[in-house]
Input
Amino acid sequence: MKKTSPALRTGEATVQTTEALEPTAVDIERGRRLFAAECRFVHAAQRLDHLPAPSGPEIAFAGRSNVGKSSLLNALTGRHALARVSHTPGRTRQLNFFDLGNRLTLVDMPGYGYARASKDIKEDWQGMMFDFLRGRPTLRRVMLLLDARIEVKPADIAVMKLLDRAAVTFQIVLTKIDSVKPRDLARKRADAEALARAHPAAHPVVLASSSDTGAGIAELRAELAAVCDA
Ligand code: GDP
Output
């Protein structure tokens, strides 16, 4: 089985098996080292003119409220400070920037689609978030989190379309995979891969993780390190 080809990484390859995409031990180690560094909250922005000046590479995290974003950021960095900052009342509607070892900036985006039946993403996503996504030269990728336990919601699709329009590469990460049976997870993964194929800005590879068990965390770190170093 071939390892991931450069063609796939740029989204040009059409057929690859999941098995071919397993990160190598070297990839995993690179991810481990990156995330062993100190991660600290550096900046919060409620308006575009409050953004930090673009410098090094940035990777943003987005998803519906309750998708498990804070838990995932904590699991990745092995710290609790990130969730505390992002869940602080008044800070949930803003972009939170975290520096990881002076090498990578993690951007925690506000959760969207809070109401269960919410079809639309609110003004902040249509306005400021879209402008951020479209205009941020240092933004390498958006990790778009989908809860593996529930169906994809209209708000998720709305954000995927917004990312397409902003022309920012996004990659789907299924969360809470400890709570689904292997067979259901396989179906979820196939559905997410189909969604990725349908969206021009989507990365073809779908990742999966559990903050509770740690499943997929090392692989996610490896992917983020590869994006950071690219
Ligand atoms: P956020 O609103 O997207 O930041 O979500 P949180 O990280 O606060 O998590 C929302 C809920 O999902 C909480 O009750 C978490 O305990 C739960 N949760 C988060 N990650 C996982 C996971 O990996 N597995 C399970 N079973 N539950 C999780």
In short: Helices lie at 6-9, 25-36, 69-77, 81-86, 123-135, 154-166, 182-198, 217-229.
